[in-house]
HTH tetR-type domain-containing protein (Phaeobacter gallaeciensis), 195 residues
Amino acid sequence: MERLPDPRLDATRSQALDAALTLLQEEGALAVTHAAISARTGISRSTLYRHWPKLDALRNAAFGRAATGPKDEPRTDGPLKTDLTWIIGKLVTALNETPWGKIAPQVIAAAATDKHSRDLMNRWIADRKGDVESVFIAAHARGELSEGAPVEQLVEMAIAIPYFRKLVAGLPLTPEWLEAHVAMICSMATEPTTE
């Protein structure tokens, strides 16, 4: 006989992950421990260990919670500039205003040595890449792209440059920057290539 989900277990997991996410944002990945979450929530350490026997599993569950946001279908009704502003603007908002933006550097660091963190990062990037690719596919279908436009590289630039600017260079992602970034990508996508 199949067991029904226990709402109390779900509530306990949710409370623990909320606490882990708060710790990640306030103090960093090393602060996320079974003891710290127990102290914040009152959930016994033995209960936490039953849910997440290894500390990496607990941290990765919190990383995953931050990386999972509402899924909106990308706008692909054009023109390219409008669609790119919307989709890259969502990324900029995520990096500037959500828990993901605060903990992304920690996920990236963990991904260097932890397979589960790497898998999470790869899934997040694949989702973003798929959204941006769909914008370019629609623009191509509308005849907006120049012959030979380097679409694969433009998709990578659309995603990678905001990360580099925010997380590596420590520079702001402002509306003015977003407008210039989109204009550069559109220019490269629509101007004839010279060889």
Q: What stands out?
A: Residues 7-64 form a domain with the Arc Repressor Mutant, subunit A fold (CATH 1.10.10). The mean pLDDT is 89.
